[in-house]
Write a structure and sequence with these properties.
Length: about 500
């Protein structure tokens, strides 16, 4: 078993030498994942002189090599939630951006002769429990209201709860991400583009006409424009980072006999949802690739348990699943309003950024590249306002609503699991067997009365302690209140 991704093991990664001398170009792209290579391709195809740099030795070797590469136009946060956040018109436009991305990947594979195992297939959203059917029905209505092609399905490759049904989304896609990146590398270089690994961006400057990128080893790049496609933006420390949060997600993969699992994208409705696809593997087998078990980055340390539970989940639903041959994990960035930030960087003129992909960075990266390319070339950019990195989330969705309740439950669950995981690990000592699934209940949130009392004590307003004391039926220590404060309090009363 390996801890690197199947894609990496299967196709390897291209390497390119570091930048050695100062260069002038039309466009410099920092980051060689799906987003960076896609925008580099669009610019090179338009006739621009392009330079791509990446801090890694390899090209496309970071998150893009750890993806599962579902090319989904259905939104993993659900369209009914997106409509709540931004309204029907923007949700419709966002869906169009995803359709445009899958179409673009298909067209590029055709135009450039890239053999990346691209395939159109159905996607299936399966309720994990009957109680989730109401959400699935909401999603059906939302999709219909914004023109998403969706149908009910009575069968699914994983068991449906009694009385449940699934949603089928035709015309989704899948591909081999690293074969695709290799194709883009060839297409960019064939048009005179230069790609450099082991070249670390450290700083930049901008004047009215040019952007300068400084690299750690010394050489600099002067360009008409720069695109930062580093997944987590390295050019900006605040503006965008406050609008997204990092989540870690896990993947296992193993062989199944060809034909034993229907070839489609499958997603369930759990809080950390499972995502499943096939990848052809020789003549008689497919590789079943299953992801899930997400948590907020830094809030859990039980990776072994999570991978074990992923395997348990998989074996319970796909008895034909062979040995786990690959397992890996990676990070995605969840934007507060579910859509990526892609376009002109806040406060800059000729600097662009792409980030905030959520679990849909393959399609978002390509849609973002189309958007940035249109802005660069002065063309009509249909998604420019929608994906504008300077946008503010619409206020009504920031604090309440179904999404934030889900996030809160997820946060509580993750925190508890990391504590429970550490304790269980300590108890088990060398025994690495996974906790039983029943342990993984989401606890009901408990109010922290101790903290509430301390806060009230700190405020030293005795009247405010009364409701808490009544509520708890507890005697509370008397608090000395300064005379001035008592007067203030009486005046307010
Ligand atoms: C396990 C997993 C499963 C996923 N499944 C799916 C899926 O099914 N479908 C889907 O659409 N999306 C999926 N995603 C999301 C998707 O893979 C990512 O959003 C996408 O790959 C991000 O691409 P990127 O180009 O923005 O970033 P990356 O691929 O990470 O590329 C960024 C590059 O920037 C470089 N860089 C960073 N800092 C510097 C610097 N200072 N100087 C120079 N270079 C720098 C890095 O070395 C890196 O190569 C998944 C993600 C994970 C982790």
């Amino acid at each position: 078993m390996t801890s690197s991704s199947f894609w990496h093991e299967d196709a390897g990664l291209e390497q390119r030498p570091p930048l050695q001398t100062d260069v002038d170009c039309d466009l410099v792209v920092v980051g060689s994942g799906i987003a960076g290579m896609s925008v580099a391709y669009e610019a090179a195809r338009f006739g621009w002189k392009v330079v791509v740099i990446d801090r890694a030795e390899t090209i496309g070797g970071v998150m893009t090599s750890r993806t599962t590469a579902h090319l989904a136009t259905e939104l993993d946060d659900y369209y009914h939630i997106l409509i709540d956040a931004v309204g029907e018109e923007d949700a419709r436009l966002y869906h169009e951006s995803q359709v445009a991305a899958v179409n673009r990947i298909e067209a590029i594979c055709g135009d450039e002769g890239i053999e990346a195992d691209f395939k159109r297939l159905d996607g299936l959203l399966v309720p994990a429990e009957l109680a989730h059917l109401a959400d699935v029905e909401k999603e059906y209505d939302a999709c219909r209201s914004i023109g998403v092609d969706v149908q009910w399905a009575e069968d699914a490759p994983i068991p449906l709860p009694d009385g449940g049904r699934a949603l089928r989304f035709p015309n989704q896609g899948r591909f081999h991400p690293l074969k695709y990146i290799r194709g883009l590398i060839g297409a960019v270089e064939a048009r005179g583009g230069k790609i450099h690994g082991s070249t670390v961006y450290v700083d930049h400057g901008e004047d009215a006409a040019r952007v300068t990128i400084e690299t750690e080893a010394g050489p600099s790049i002067s360009a008409k424009a720069a695109v930062f496609a580093t997944n987590s933006p390295v050019n900006d420390k605040v503006a965008i980072h406050t609008k997204q949060k990092p989540m870690r997600t896990y993947v296992i993969a193993g062989p199944v006999p060809r034909g034993s699992v229907e070839d489609m994208l499958i997603w369930d409705t759990l809080q950390a949802y499972h995502y499943v696809r096939l990848q052809p593997l020789g003549d008689a087998q497919d590789l079943l690739i299953v992801g899930g078990e997400d948590h907020r980055s830094g809030e859990a340390t039980d990776m072994g348990d999570r991978l074990a539970h992923l395997e348990h989940w998989t074996r319970a639903r796909f008895p034909c699943f062979g040995e786990v041959r690959y397992r890996w994990s990676g990070q995605v960035l969840e934007p507060v309003d579910y859509m990526p930030y892609s376009g002109r960087n806040p406060g800059n003129r000729n600097i662009y950024v792409h980030t905030g992909d959520s679990g849909q960075g393959m399609t978002n990266g390509v849609a973002g590249a189309l958007n940035i390319a249109a802005l660069l070339f002065g063309q009509k950019a249909r998604f420019a306002e929608l994906l504008n990195p300077s946008r503010k989330p619409k206020p009504r969705r920031l604090c309440d609503g179904p999404r934030s309740r889900r996030q809160e439950l997820q946060r509580i669950s993750d925190r508890r699991r990391s504590v429970v995981g550490r304790r269980a690990e300590a108890r088990r000592g060398r025994d690495r067997s996974p906790r039983p699934l029943q342990d993984r209940r989401i606890p009901r949130p408990r109010r922290d009365f101790g903290a509430a009392i301390s806060r009230l004590h700190a405020r030293r307003v005795p009247g405010s302690l009364e409701p808490v004391r009544n509520m708890l039926g507890l005697p509370l220590p008397r608090v000395a209140v300064p005379a001035g404060r008592q007067r203030d309090q009486r005046t307010r009363d």
